[in-house]
Amino acid sequence: MGINFGGRKTNLLSIDAENLQLRTLKDTGAVFRRICSSEEVRAWINDMVLHKAPCYLVVGLQVLSNVGFTRAVLAEGGGGAHVKLPLDPA
Hints:
Elements: E1 2-24, H1 28-36, H2 39-50, E2 60-82
Antiparallel strand pairs: 1-2
């Protein structure tokens, strides 16, 4: 016999902005090749790979101005019970 209770929460975030600017690199391949020409950068990337750490190259930014955030949390709950019975009565 057992009882379980479960619940789940969902977080929602709404973003309202007066202005959005998107800034990206024009030639990401050329930038990557240029930074990898540095021995120090190559050693750092090799170290990240060796330790299975994430390594990212940021190729763009979104810039928001006059921003407002609205957050909502939705909660759902539930419960249940179960009983184990033998297949062959003794």
